[in-house]
Amino acid sequence: MHYANAVITEYENYDYVNIAVFNRIIIDDLPKGKIIPKDKSEITENEQAALASEVARVSQYRARHKIFDIAMLNDWQYFVTFTFNDKIQDAHDYKGTIEKVKKWCQNAVQRKGMRYLLVPELHPTSGRIHLHGLLAFQSNIPLEFSGHYDKALRPIYNCPFWKYGFSTVVRLDFNTQDRIAKYITKYITKDLDKITGNYYYAGGHNLKRFVDKSYINIDFDDFDAPEFVIAGGMKVKYLYVTKEKLLNMQFIVDNNIEF
Asked: Using only C-alpha atoms, what is the Rg of the chain?
């Protein structure tokens, strides 16, 4: 069996690829084994805290990349923000709020042919929950012009069938999907999974979730890109480049490494 330490993700219809280079040989883009250093009875409180932090970091890493993949794999029409009116739905009732969001999405999928990717965010001071995300529909939907424009002078609409509070809807410009994908992944925080049960919510008609990936070997030390620590001493370097630049990059590669 051949092993590799680098993953190249290419998105159909987009001129960019993601390159992730790890400091260890991998089979997938992150080992899936549980992180258990020793018998639980022997783990100190400090070690438990460190272990929990490590697991959370791995979970966040996976979520960010899954959100990015879903955002890039699918065609989207709108970037949206949904907030809540406490008279209709208490924005501090996280479990109840997410259940309402799930039901709303299911209804919109069935009745309006919606495809969605929504990421919850907690307000840093009030703790209120709201959502950012991407939507697409099989047919035209009615939108209400809010009378306002964003910084790029694009009209901001309201979604009339969002009944739980306030909404902003902006039509996506051509070739802005990668920027939006990066934007919504920044809302992934350590508290979201515990509070809402998930880092993101995605579904709907013909939603694509999985992207083809190429696995090769690239010298970690010689690869010039920002470096991040994931878990257990594992490090990764990321680079987001055009396909043309990828073809011109000189990698130190040995694709026959086995162990």
From this structure: 21
Helix (H) or strand (E) holding 239: strand 235-242
Nearest alpha-carbon partner for 132 in 202, 46, 59: 202
Amino acid at 225: A
How far is the C-alpha of 188 from the C-alpha of 199, rounded, in Å? 7
* Adjacent-strand bridge partners of 169: 80, 157
Residue 233, number of CB atoms within 10 A of its CB: 9
Q: Residues 235-239: what's their mean pLDDT?
A: 85
pLDDT at 43 over 60: no
144 and 69 inside one domain? no
Q: Are residues 82 and 197 in the same domain?
A: yes
Over residues 230-251, mean pLDDT: 77
The residue range of the domain holding 24 is: 4-28+44-73+211-248
